[in-house]
């Protein structure tokens, strides 16, 4: 499968990366080179093979339902959460107005 | 008095403990080297005051007769992928420009708790995507090494290029690295140092800016195996904040180091011998076999049949995960925001990410977005994860016949900066020997094996069974003792 | 198939409905972080570094949320998947800091199950109907956007972000607004019985995405469906279906085609409209979350989940009508809400114990008290009722007085009022306030004799066959006793004398 400029534009839009025409043009052969190369994976017979789920045998641990058990993973830290915000507004994150 | 910056982790730790010198003297010496090495561009931010502060605490503890940690008095460089509380953390990107984390990564916390101090935040490929440290928003890192034949600036390897440069140029006795598809081992090989990627899950990923979650693993980069063993011991450990963290004890790797390989089998994967392989790489590999045989090991031929497909599988899986992991950089809560006049929310995202990500990051995010998109998911992503299962199975079967695997770390010595930056594919191929172990989550290291005829370092790679960092480091130590690698770059930058 | 039809220009249409109900899992902390889930906190006060998607943050799942999802699955007799996985659903929106929602697409924790909605003739549901449930999966809630605080900005509050939701996906088995309404009510009841969701629709603990399509009556193919998001009451769910079905029929009959899209319901205008902001978000690029390993449930965990399940609505109802001998109506009323059956069962136990009778013996009396008498008194008292006095013991004591014939129904209400105002003991109230009926046969007999003497003609008529006059004699006697005689005693004595 190869991509054309229109497809790259669609992917870029899906990935929310603005790209002008020049950039799109430049990306097309680059992406196609990479895609053509990764497509050799199609040669591998994977019948009966499960996709990898855990690289090292390990199962999911669950944590106890305790609020703020660890300050690093708990809430109540509004100042820290907002400290790096480009547009903090009265305890909120400000973003351009959204019309739903 | 000895030049303290020639000392490694063990020597500094022991010297400080014995009182041969103070931790402060060590920190001052390295701070001075860091300050004099701006030409190498290894650091994004330097924090000499942090190094002094940690050293002061160690000296005070020693004076008070308190027990000292395993890294006490050792100043280190911190790859700028690890969140450091109160110190800018950027992943070498523009999009995280000015981001000051209100938290500290688990790995860096562990190191500070063991008595290490921070010299600064090390440059890297942007979001750890790259093999030459040419994708950093903060500029290329320049390798301290130069070929005998030319003065061309060389790549220090990537993505942990700041780390490899800092250690080999004696700006730090050790540094943290992260390895997603070779990002510790390849730069270690390029700069004549040792780097260990432990088993996936040994080091917590909490607080490490994510590239590809199922592959990312932190590890030490230092002058030798012993230093790496000490530092890995400090970095590793179960972390309940990371669901993929291994809940198992951290062995005392340093204490158990043993270069006697009697009774051990070393596998040589035939598929790693590729057409057109560089003669010097091949010679170094042969030399490695001879050294390990000399250390008592038996050399056996093994097969890893799906090796050829590791790199393409990696270049689907890693970008796919990255495309999602990097979605959080949107200009809303931290970092760069580019809000063109009259732009709506979605325009702001697109503008911010266009301005904030470099070309390689964009390329990988696009690839990742494409392979996950409707209609292509199974053909690309599912197939790649199946191939990954086969690659892991190859290793599991091989390890029924051997204890560790010996292979080259890289297909060549360091290349000049700019040599491959126009051709993403040829850049990717640099990690051909490193990626399979990453896909299988296995511990692996690179240890210096010698110099090419042009005087550039080459590394040898040891890959081991899951959780067997000890076996990997023991084999590495056997090579280290025989290679006697003592070359270091001329100090042309200061 | 219900007989709900939409009359169009070209004939009759039927509607096919599927519901995706998002139910907030009852838990103290969020699905993947330790931040609190309490409703109504200051903006961004209940946000962890994980919820704000700071670089390098990682999710660790909350055991309680998994447990509640499994218990809910068991309550709808669904298949519980011992192996499940979390997937990332990727899209960009300001209420979604990670740029993806952690959800379960490929391997949900709960597979197929079902629930039964009750027959309701008036609502056009002639008999009970089984509604299939396709799956339940666990996922993160999103944050909240506020649009009216600033002229050019929206404000983002991430307090809800990361709170655990169960998405309960029905099969397209409903064919009328009433069925959909009954389904949501029944589901809510089950969730509240299980304790996995508080069912509070006003606070957004339960919302439904309503999938609606229409087709000509008898057509085999399903029409194109629309999905109206975040509908937060049973009434609105029903209204959305009516509006959307009508809109689709009109659209098709005017020659248009229904577009598969996301819509929003505007309760003020009672209409749905297309949701432009989500238009391009349909390629979600789901893939297994690499930060989370597969979730494997062991038998001990499942066993604990099963053992901790309470008696569920259908079983309770059957027991009420069977074992306790209650009417279908009373059983339905009592089992509809957790609070109601809890009150009933507490009072039933207290009353049976005070009367030294079986539950079945007093169930009807307690049911009537719980459903009609007590609510009536409470309503008339309004704020004057002090609820701390409204104990099971006090209620049971009043029922005991009634059962013994000591007080009449009317007196019981008066006593209850005084209890609620003052907290005094019912026995003492009956005694001191003269709220007791006369059961002394001697006194009653004397009054009866006087009544009969004063009305010889009526006695003769009665004896001549005019049975209806019996009530007259009862009334006259009661009047003479100032309403305080036990009517049963009057009846018995009168019968004997007139006999």
Automatic annotation (TrEMBL), chain A:
Sample GO molecular function, one term: transferase activity
Quaternary assembly: Heterotrimer of A, B and C subunits.
Similarity-based family: Belongs to the GatC family.
Alphabetical UniProt keywords: ATP-binding, Ligase, Nucleotide-binding, Protein biosynthesis, Transferase
Upper classification of the organism: Bacteria, Pseudomonadati, Pseudomonadota, Alphaproteobacteria, Sphingomonadales
Gene: gatC
Pfam entry (one): GatC
Cited function: Allows the formation of correctly charged Asn-tRNA(Asn) or Gln-tRNA(Gln) through the transamidation of misacylated Asp-tRNA(Asn) or Glu-tRNA(Gln) in organisms which lack either or both of asparaginyl-tRNA or glutaminyl-tRNA synthetases. The reaction takes place in the presence of glutamine and ATP through an activated phospho-Asp-tRNA(Asn) or phospho-Glu-tRNA(Gln).
Organism: Allopontixanthobacter confluentis
Reaction equations catalysed: L-aspartyl-tRNA(Asn) + L-glutamine + ATP + H2O = L-asparaginyl-tRNA(Asn) + L-glutamate + ADP + phosphate + 2 H(+); L-glutamyl-tRNA(Gln) + L-glutamine + ATP + H2O = L-glutaminyl-tRNA(Gln) + L-glutamate + ADP + phosphate + H(+)
Protein EC: 6.3.5.-
Biological process annotations from GO: glutaminyl-tRNAGln biosynthesis via transamidation; regulation of translational fidelity; translation
Entries under SUPFAM superfamilies matching the protein: Glu-tRNAGln amidotransferase C subunit
Protein name: Aspartyl/glutamyl-tRNA(Asn/Gln) amidotransferase subunit C
TrEMBL record, chain B:
Similarity remark: Belongs to the amidase family. GatA subfamily.
A GO term for molecular function: ATP binding
Organism the protein comes from: Allopontixanthobacter confluentis
Boundaries of every Amidase domain copy: 26-472
GO CC annotations on file: glutamyl-tRNA(Gln) amidotransferase complex
Quaternary structure and interacting proteins, as annotated: Heterotrimer of A, B and C subunits.
Entry EC no(s): 6.3.5.7
Name this polypeptide is given: Glutamyl-tRNA(Gln) amidotransferase subunit A
Gene of this entry: gatA
From TrEMBL, chain C:
HAMAP family in alphabetical order: GatB
Domain (Asn/Gln amidotransferase) ranges: 342-498
UniProt entry tagged with the keyword ATP-binding: yes
Enzyme Commission (EC) number: 6.3.5.-
Main EC class the enzyme belongs to: ligase
Pfam families: GatB_N, GatB_Yqey
Keyword Lipid metabolism carried by entry: no
Native organism: Allopontixanthobacter confluentis
UniProt protein name: Aspartyl/glutamyl-tRNA(Asn/Gln) amidotransferase subunit B
Catalysis: reaction(s): L-glutamyl-tRNA(Gln) + L-glutamine + ATP + H2O = L-glutaminyl-tRNA(Gln) + L-glutamate + ADP + phosphate + H(+); L-aspartyl-tRNA(Asn) + L-glutamine + ATP + H2O = L-asparaginyl-tRNA(Asn) + L-glutamate + ADP + phosphate + 2 H(+)
Keywords of the record: ATP-binding, Ligase, Nucleotide-binding, Protein biosynthesis, Transferase
Family from the record: Belongs to the GatB/GatE family. GatB subfamily.
GO biological process, one term: translation
One GO MF term: glutaminyl-tRNA synthase (glutamine-hydrolyzing) activity
Subunit details: Heterotrimer of A, B and C subunits.
Role played: Allows the formation of correctly charged Asn-tRNA(Asn) or Gln-tRNA(Gln) through the transamidation of misacylated Asp-tRNA(Asn) or Glu-tRNA(Gln) in organisms which lack either or both of asparaginyl-tRNA or glutaminyl-tRNA synthetases. The reaction takes place in the presence of glutamine and ATP through an activated phospho-Asp-tRNA(Asn) or phospho-Glu-tRNA(Gln).
